[in-house]
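Weekend entry, working from home. Most of the wet-lab plans are on hold until the incubator is repaired, so I used the time to fold the two sequences that have been sitting in the queue since the last round of cloning. Logging both here for the record. First:
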Amino acid sequence: AHVEVLGRTGVDPFTVPDMITLDEAFQFADEGRLEERLLRIDEALVNMPSLSINDEQTNRLKNGLRVRFGQLPTADFQPVRVYDASGEFVGIGETNGAELKARRLMSTGT
């Protein structure tokens, strides 16, 4: 047996209606419309739990410091999507319930 045609029907959580080909991406770019087809980076992480933190905690995290929550650890460190007080995606962190540490943060240019 052999495969003559192989087509991707989805990549969790995205399905065919959400996806475009590379040629379509180039066409959208040429038309100045690529931004309307691009998804926010955190949309690829929807299966990961999220955590919102306040401004002071966001500053600590962005400066490479751990954020402590003043409670006992509830588990091993697990990845989470981190959002600031205004709902902006900060990046991926790891938390054990007692503290949060940065794993990969987004560059904001500030």
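Second, folded right after the first finished:
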Amino acid sequence: KINICLEVFMFSKRTFSAVDATVVIASQQQGMTVSTQDIAELLGLSVSYLESILKVLKANGIIRSYRGPGGGYTLARPAKDIHVADILRAIGPAQVSIVLSSAASSTTAR
């Protein structure tokens, strides 16, 4: 009898959107900002939904915002120093399902 334990991580749409937004910001030329409107259009998100994500990323030191003409967002530190795990921690924990199975039966625990 063989038992297998596998953890399955489930990420929310919000988490994927945060990673996508960070990638868009990181793709800008150094010193160039990108506006909330531009990011929202590129990702197909509403501006208000995106703003709530950007606020969290900013509070966690992942991005920086600039106001006024030419304002927008840049990374708060070099891209090489920002990891997906930083974004995941900022946005919140993933849901984890532990799947237990054997040759005779299969059980899912949460």
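Plan for Monday: verify the second prediction. Confidence is low (pLDDT under 50) at residues 103-110.
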